[in-house]
Description:
Order of helices and strands: EHEHEHEHEHEEH
Low-confidence stretches: 195-206
CATH class: Alpha Beta
Number of helices: 6
Amino acid sequence: MLSLAVLISGGGSNLKALLDAAADPDFPARVVAVFADTDAEGLAHATAADIPAAIVRPRDFASREAWGDALARRIRESGADLVVSAGLMRILPAGFVRAFAPRLINTHPALLPLYPGAHAVRDALAAGAAETGVTVHVIDEGVDTGPVLRQARVAIVPGEPENELHERIKQIERPLLVATVRDIASGALELPVGASEHPITPHPHT
């Protein structure tokens, strides 16, 4: 059974999708902890599922690195095997990434390497792209530059507003993330172990 620590900043729709999936006893992963960098609405999903949750605010630390170190300690204490950045709207410090990669994954609303960064949906529309999509990837020390694990395509409707396109991407993003976590947990998808000295070893607990 794979143990997950989930990082959020907002409404937590990806977290909710993982919690719903984990409610099935046949799903090979469980959320054991949720962490936010602010008073995220999505923490309510953790509370409803009786999952330990905490806010670790960067402003409470002297530097981004100190915040990352504190967050890393909390994740290690949770016993999580895999860290899932599910809507965390913050670049993780390099030391944090080195501590967990490749056991550190993220979703991004574009077909990487196209349109990295915080405005991927807007950038795809500005480029006049006919399609975009969602990527689940390993987080590395760059910005959306880590190894791609899974992708799904989404056609862009001419004249479609950014918010409507983003919502359609989210509808694809949630099941893609769930499927990726399932495949990692089952061994159907191998993480790039060479990127880290810490290969994934799921805990033998339920």
